[in-house]
Amino acid sequence: QVQLVESGGGLVQPGGSLRLSCTASGFTFSINSMSWYRQAPGKERELVARISAPSDRTVYADSVKGRFTIPRDNVMNTLYLQINRLKPQVTAVYYCYTKSSWGQGTQVTVSS
Prior knowledge:
mainly beta; seven-stranded mixed β-sheet; five-stranded antiparallel β-sheet; globular
């Protein structure tokens, strides 16, 4: 059974950085594409970034290009989302996704 557990969210000031983690289990992590989605208040859930396997090819939403990266650690079965130069528009619940399964989400709030 696929299990995805996100962590690393919190309240952060604008301009700062944050790294989200998604620890995965129940499947062969290294051969599966992984994605981060987010859902802001009153908006639909949207794709933020995806990393393929085994190529590690990445895709980013236009709104996050240049500020977000999506590395993965196939030894630790962990997906990351590195967010730099945080803006208030980044505020949302961030979800890890793979194989039709979602994590529980982690809240990111950017505010001074």
